[in-house]
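Table 4 source record.
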Amino acid sequence: MILAFDTTTSACTAAVCDGDTVVAERSVALERGHAEILLPMIEGVLADGSIGYRDLTGIAVTRGPGAFTGIRIGLAAARGLGLATGLPVAGVTTLEALALTAAGHTERQQIAAIMDTKRRDFFVQVFERDPSTGGVRSLGEAAVVAGDALAAHLAGVEGLSWDHLATAGDGLAQPAAPELPAGLEALSEIASPSPLSICMLARAQLGNSPSPPAPLYLRPPEARLPATRS
């Protein structure tokens, strides 16, 4: 059984998964405040499933891209729980987990994970189904793309076909979201990755991935140390 949680999106989600079954899950939509509710949410999920830390085999967490504060909150919590319990910790990218979540809701062979950065651009990565694993594999690197360049960016991904493409994430759910060519399928209801997808991706990594997982930042933080006066 794996404890999984995500704090990189506009939701805070935690769950325990046993194989391909979600034993217990809680999720709250919110723009900020993940730090205050994450640990109580984890304790609530464990209580809902009558599960103790001794019953778990690992911890899975999203490592970005996403909100800087959200990434740090999730990774810090995962590291702390891993140190306290001795459980291995695995980090998965939010975009891959989002694409894998979407794959369970469409017959399309390709998925563009598109997240709103809240800065008039998007975190974007394109994936395709991987028949050998039942998961997804990337067709290109994750990138930050301006809204007016999104269609051109996707069109430039080698192997992409609009007729085979579905999109997922909160990026295209925004009122001012850019228009994309006809032919794709928009899964606007898939705004964040499911805990089961996080668990599935983490399962192969547990015990074999760097601990603690490294954050995935696609741009430098806006915060800067104040300049020192000479």
